[in-house]
Amino acid sequence: MSVMLYEGKAKRIYETDEPGVLRVVYKDDATAFNGEKKEVLQGKGKLNNEISSRLFQQLKAHGVDSHFVSQVSELEQLVRSVDIIPLEVVVRNIACGSLVKRTGMERGTKLAAPIVEFYYKDDALGDPLVNRSHIQAMHLAEEAEVNQLQEKALRVNEVLVPYFAERGVDLVDFKLEFGRTAEGTILLADEISPDTCRFWDQASGESLDKDLFRFSSGNLQEGYAQLLERLT
């Protein structure tokens, strides 16, 4: 039986017999507001695994490398082992969420250009917003690495915005995580799913993401399933 190396809010990570390759198992757990709201939603893990696998493959086809190796079951992926950089990289295309709270911008305002933000990955601190000076002072990443993170995040945006638009969906904003390989290469990691992105139906404006659970505004599984259907 493989050893579990880590358990997060939405996934478990196990070692495998292959050096440098890990097994990710998606969970049905849903959390919001830094874990203050929790629930088990049957089928959520399967939907996120399928959606994330498809998006990693789509990005790969457009030259964006990630830790993703393959989807091996309804709930499992194989991924390359990376040392996660303790920064969340958020790209925003439409004003929503904390951006609205911090700036007073009207929710739904389409931004003239994407905004890239960095957040320090620390649950105890509530994943605070940080700038490049903070990152340098805290020794979280080198300046050249921060530049890479921003460039890679914007490239993900360039690929996915039109991809979803063709399917009647607005990619409002999304969170990315990156990791370093043993050789020092920075790869896109974690997941890209309705847990980590905001998706709005272009016709109705309805959410197809975790806001359905976060604000009790609809059925999460139905929203995720509708998004997956658009992708297939």
UniProtKB/TrEMBL annotation:
Catalytic reactions of this protein: 5-amino-1-(5-phospho-D-ribosyl)imidazole-4-carboxylate + L-aspartate + ATP = (2S)-2-[5-amino-1-(5-phospho-beta-D-ribosyl)imidazole-4-carboxamido]succinate + ADP + phosphate + 2 H(+)
Gene Ontology biological process terms in this record: 'de novo' IMP biosynthetic process; cobalamin biosynthetic process
SAICAR synthetase/ADE2 N-terminal domain sequence ranges: 5-230
Record-listed E.C. numbers: 6.3.2.6
Keyword terms, alphabetized: ATP-binding, Ligase, Nucleotide-binding, Purine biosynthesis
PROSITE patterns: SAICAR_SYNTHETASE_2
Matching InterPro entries: SAICAR_synt/ADE2_N, SAICAR_synt_PurC, SAICAR_synth, SAICAR_synthetase, SAICAR_synthetase_CS
GO terms for MF: ATP binding; phosphoribosylaminoimidazolesuccinocarboxamide synthase activity
Residues passing through the membrane, by range: none
UniProt pathway annotation: Purine metabolism; IMP biosynthesis via de novo pathway; 5-amino-1-(5-phospho-D-ribosyl)imidazole-4-carboxamide from 5-amino-1-(5-phospho-D-ribosyl)imidazole-4-carboxylate: step 1/2
EC top class, as a word: ligase
PANTHER family reported for this sequence: MULTIFUNCTIONAL PROTEIN ADE2, SI:DKEY-6E2.2
Family assignment from sequence similarity: Belongs to the SAICAR synthetase family.
HAMAP family: SAICAR_synth
Protein name: Phosphoribosylaminoimidazole-succinocarboxamide synthase
Natural source organism: Alkalicoccus urumqiensis (Bacillus urumqiensis)
Gene (name only): purC
